[in-house]
Specification:
6-stranded mixed sheet, alpha+beta, 12 helices, 5-stranded mixed sheet, 18 strands, Nucleotidyltransferase, domain 5, 25% strand
Length: 416
Amino acid sequence: MTACGLDFGTSNTTLGVQDADGFRLLALDGTRTTLPTAVFFDFEHDRTTIGQAAIDGYVSGVEGRLMRSIKSMLGTDLIDADTALRKGRISFRAVIGTFLDLVRKRAEETLGGELGDVVVGRPVHFVDGDPAGDAAAEEALGQIARAAGFRNVSFQFEPIAAALDYEQQVAGEELALIADIGGGTSDFSVVRIGPERRGKSDRAGDILANDGIRVGGTDFDRDLSIATAMPELGLGSAMKRAGLLAPKSIYFDLATWSKINFLYTAKAMAELERLQRDSAEPEKIERLIGVVEHRQGHALAMAVERTKIALSDHEAAELALDWGGGDLALAVDREALNRATGSLAARIGARIRDCLADAGVTAERIDAVFLTGGSTLLPQVRAAILAGAPGARVVEGNIFGSVGLGLTVEAQRRYG
């Protein structure tokens, strides 16, 4: 059996092994090593798909249930709940287990052999400010991974894994700030790295500080959606009764990946119809009903995510809305993104300052800032990170692969 490193991410998942070619990530999605963390329960064909095929099946209109951001359920009450499928119900633990089982099988098919022991990446905090909840989340993920067919399961902090990947390329000793901004969490470490340190069995003394916050790419998606798309669907609109506005909770659920499916029920639809009757702007609520009735919530969330990504490279982008009864295209500029998500970027910057303080080092002592995770491409996020160590060298990691590669390095140290 082969030991492996598994980066089960909120948005994407990778799995790596070591072979004659060194540390490498296995192809999990066709020829791609990065697999979207998505599960689609296809009702029409009575099958379950994951990755890009899951997203494509949903977008093509196949009847079924799409679930994304399933990692975000760890550390919440949802992990011990269940949800409706076409024929009965399924627990959220089973959803995550189904995904990990299919990931393992794909990896074994690519590898041509069995996987056994695994080091799984985890955020510094599954839950902010709740050590008991954090420990419970790790324990739940360990149980799910073992049930999915992995033998010995252990964990490593994701920013430490990224540091282990970065260490493979450095020529001398450095003090590095590692910033891993993922789909669900932002994690940071201050670590001493270098060629002479790679072979040490105990690296605890090289880790000066670890910190993290439950803010990630899906939070940026949500806040951008709330600021741009949701007002077109009635957020903030007036009700017939003076002084009342449409309830925010509906729009928060529609803008949050893990909660969209909660609106696809008869009870939720009845509530929306009552809302339209009581609304002073019923045409906007009609759009909202169209989104829910035609189950376009995930498609809307994907459109918002694409707009956010486009604004990483361009000053303006178009956000196309389709609620089943007509199309609406909104012009969104980078300033709008910054206004909508500025508080999130500020929280990331503040946590980096806390991490440096915990390490007992000043910004001037940081030699390099190593960036990994898709949200490091957002200009305001990058600016918040680099403000913590303005004189340091900036190193671009493998945006979606550094954590998985570092976990593979750790897996070989522990099990190889």
